[in-house]
Design goal:
Strand content of chain A: 5-15%
Order of helices and strands of chain B: HHHHHHHHHHHHHH
Radius of gyration of chain A: 28 Å
Structural class of chain B: mainly alpha
Distance between the termini of chain A: 45 Å
Number of strands of chain A: 3
Low-confidence stretches of chain B: 84-95
Helix content of chain B: 55-70%
Distance between the termini of chain B: 56 Å
Strand order of the largest sheet of chain A: 1-3-2
Number of helices of chain B: 14
Oligomer: heterodimer
Radius of gyration of chain B: 28 Å
Shape of chain B: flat
Low-confidence stretches of chain A: none
Number of helices of chain A: 14
Structural class of chain A: mainly alpha
């Protein structure tokens, strides 16, 4: 009797558990798992966004194209360039500065069947030889270097700033509340909307930022208008919008550090810097880990501010293109090739996944986070 | 009695030391405030410029960026906000002859604002139920496959929605809906349903629920309460901070939602504020007065809500263990 009652109680518990899991599970399957699987499947097809109609009025099914999308996406060739020969002297031609003259990349790539579908990504000199780097999709490679630049700068800088802000507003000052509110305010704005405001502020001719910096004899900077400064402009406004949130998380972490630790270290003669290094930082270890990991995942998705501030182009000269923006441009705008965009999505997901795993390993010092 | 033997020289030295300490402290404090004020300026200036510029004539806004007037209202006008028929959603007011058309002549702001509020609120409210229930089952009930569920949820946190947006768009393009239509595009539900279940929300609930002592449930079970009753009457009331945190995180994320509504809405019928902002921004001629008015109206209400609840917000984040 007792055994059957126990089993029926167990069964009851199971039934309730599955029932409670049902809505979330259904929704996650429908809107995350299915698109995930179809991204993988579509990446091997030439699926367009709007199905083409055939002569009989039915939709043309997408063709399986094998790894064609991946080949175009990932193809990278290093081509050795030969200097041009001056036909008059038979010697290598030199320009007015004495540098060797190389043929134009386009001439090389167009004139050779083997390089079909490649465009110039970069050129570099190594041991006196000029190399041409050509890619099936140079914009994709630029989006990768851009996003890594963005992540590698934004994550540490924003985390450090957020920690600094948290330390400032954690002081027992009357005004601390006020400052906390101000630092947090950008977080509640929406990115697309403040992107428009920053676009206005960054204007090189009449923008407020250049006018302000000119007081200190700085600038004028081209901000979003020049490839050298465009990504910096995106980084600054991203930190402006995001730091306040991490400040709150650090603040919560700071308040968890027992006051006695500070009192004890003060009795031992520790100064403020030593207290920060040996009490605060170790006490914030988990918080920092969480902030760094979550900021990294967010940073990889960079899209809205670039899309709005560069009118969807990721310019100038691809200097702010990101994987997500490239994916949206390929799959939703322009050529609307969902198959190709899916290949971008799959490669991007693999990168993000690998980095999350590696980061967890490294930051948690081998322990599981 | 030792004090009596301290020489006057020693007393002077001690006084000097105290004075330098005090001086150092006040220098430190001044510096402290200077840094905090400079930072406050950095974080506040775009918002101040936005609001102040929205109250100026179009022709004056750019010129004022050259001086401190960027932050000071002058020639105050509501021209950019003109024809403010906040309540007449669905009707555009007609431009008056001789007056620059303002924000409300150019688009139906009320409708767009409602779209944002409705979509965000729906996601948050449904999400709180769906995600907390799933987390309750995972944290406090025994069933086969439990570990698999937890692992999958943690893996799903890493997947960025943005990467799957294009395949999902293709998918919802041919989804049926209860009204008989064969596509989800250009609707509210296409903006709501994909975001109700959220792996990170489930994870936050899970972490919190697992920390509540099990004896509570067992006592309630002995008293004859069902599992739903335990969830609703016991766990939910004990977990209000994490509910608040998840609600705030989800609200902030979806209030700013841009890519998905950009892909799934046409025109302004269902478009939320961020998408309308981008369209408005791209429309020629670009009138900064109207843009600033739009941005201010989209931002100020949320700022006010935040100001009202901010103390509560900080506390809930602190006590719900978002810090990992």
């Amino acid at each position: 009797m007792a055994v059957t009652r126990l089993t029926s109680a167990r069964q009851q518990e199971r039934r309730v558990a599955y029932l409670m899991l049902l809505p979330a599970t259904l929704l996650l399957i429908l809107f995350t798992l299915l698109p995930f699987i179809s991204a993988i499947r579509l990446s091997f097809t030439d699926q367009p966004l709007v199905p083409q109609l055939q002569a009989d009025g039915t939709q043309r099914p997408a063709d399986f194209v094998g790894t064609e999308n991946y080949q175009r996406l990932l193809r990278l060739e290093f081509i050795t360039l030969q200097p041009e020969i001056d036909s008059a002297t038979g010697q290598p031609a030199r320009d007015e500065t004495g540098a060797l003259v190389y043929p134009r990349a386009r001439t090389i790539l167009r004139g050779n069947e083997q390089y079909d579908g490649l465009s110039e990504l970069n050129q570099f000199d190594l041991f006196g030889t000029r190399y041409l780097v050509a890619a099936g999709d140079p914009t994709f490679w630029r989006s990768l270097t851009n996003i890594f630049t963005f992540v590698l700068i934004t994550v540490p800088v924003q985390t450090a700033i957020a920690l600094g802000l948290a330390l400032l507003v954690n002081q027992k000052l009357k005004a601390a509340n006020f400052f906390r509110t101000v630092y947090f305010a950008p977080v509640v704005t929406s990115m697309a909307i403040v992107s428009v405001i920053w676009f206005f502020l960054y204007n090189p001719q009449e923008g407020l930022i250049n006018n302000f910096l000119s007081i200190f004899q700085l600038g004028p900077f081209q901000w979003l208008d020049h490839p050298a400064s465009s990504m910096v402009s995106i980084i600054i406004m991203s930190i402006w919008q995001g730091a306040g949130f991490q400040m709150i998380i650090f603040l919560a972490g700071l308040q968890d550090i027992p006051e006695e630790l500070y009192e004890a270290s003060a009795l031992d003669g520790a100064n403020i810097v030593q207290q920060f290094l040996f009490v605060t930082l170790p006490g914030l270890r988990n918080t920092t880990l969480f902030v760094a990991i979550s900021t990294t995942i967010l940073a990889f998705k960079l899209f809205v501010q670039v899309d709005v501030m560069t009118f969807g182009r990721g310019g100038p000269e691809d200097s702010t293109i990101t994987p997500i923006l490239h994916l949206v441009n390929e799959g939703f705008r322009g050529s609307q090739q969902v198959g190709y965009a899916s290949a971008i999505a799959v490669v991007f997901l693999l990168i993000v996944f690998a980095i999350s795993v590696a980061q967890r390993r490294i930051l948690s010092g081998g322990q599981t986070a | 009695m030792t004090q009596a033997v301290i020489s006057s020289a020693e007393r002077d030295a001690a006084a000097t030391r105290a004075r330098t300490a005090r001086l150092r402290k006040s220098v430190f404090k001044t510096l402290d405030y200077a840094v905090m004020i400079a930072l406050a300026f950095f974080f506040a200036f775009p918002i101040i410029v936005m609001v102040v510029s929205s109250t100026k004539p179009d022709t004056q806004i750019a010129g004022d960026m050259r001086s401190v007037f960027a932050f000071i209202p002058r020639n105050f006008t509501f021209e950019n906000y003109s024809c403010a028929d906040f309540n007449q959603a669905g009707s555009l007011c007609s431009p008056q002859p001789g007056v620059n058309p303002g924000l409300f002549e150019r688009l139906d702001f009320g409708r767009i604002f409602f779209n944002s509020v409705f979509v965000t609120a729906s996601i948050v409210i449904f999400g709180l139920f769906v995600n907390s229930m799933a987390a309750f089952a995972m944290a406090r009930l025994e069933f086969p496959g439990k570990k698999v569920f937890v692992t999958i949820v943690i893996l799903l946190i890493i997947i960025p929605f943005e990467a799957l947006a294009v395949p999902l768009l293709l998918q919802v393009n041919s989804f049926p809906w209860i009204d008989g239509s064969t596509s989800w595009t250009n609707s509210y539900h296409v903006q709501i349903f994909p975001f109700i279940a959220d792996a990170f929300s489930i994870f936050l609930f899970y972490q919190f629920f697992i920390g509540i002592p099990k004896d509570f449930d067992e006592a309630a079970l002995v008293d004859g309460a069902g599992y739903f009753r335990i969830y609703w009457r016991l766990i939910v009331p004990l977990s209000l901070p994490v509910f608040a945190t998840v609600a705030i995180l989800q609200a902030l994320t979806h209030w700013g939602s841009f890519l998905w509504p950009l892909m799934t809405t046409r025109g302004f019928e269902f478009a939320p504020l961020p998408v309308a902002m981008q369209v408005f921004f791209g429309q020629a001629p670009r009138q900064w007065g109207d843009i600033m008015a739009f941005a201010s109206l989209a931002t100020i209400p949320v700022l006010i809500v935040f100001l009202l609840f901010q103390r509560w917000f900080v506390q809930s984040v602190a006590s719900s263990g978002v810090k990992g």
